[in-house]
Amino acid sequence: xxxxxxxxxxxAVIFREIIQEIxxxxxxxxxxFECRKYLIYQPSTKRNLxxxxxxxxxxxxxxxxxxxxxxxxxxSVENGG
Length: 81
Prior knowledge:
Blueprint: H1 11-23, E1 27-31, E2 37-41, H2 51-65
Antiparallel strand pairs: 1-2
């Protein structure tokens, strides 16, 4: 299931678009060096959600769309090494 042919991010792009359409929250789909897919939330002045709020939001959508639970975790993202 590869929805995003340009960057090969598949399900992450679908989740991003669903959440953006329904919740109005801008997310960035990306992957790491081990090809794990991520959604990154960049806080904004419009809707600054805290860690617990984002975890609850992601869990809501993963529970609806997936048969098996997907772990939802929080990490601080840094640029560079």
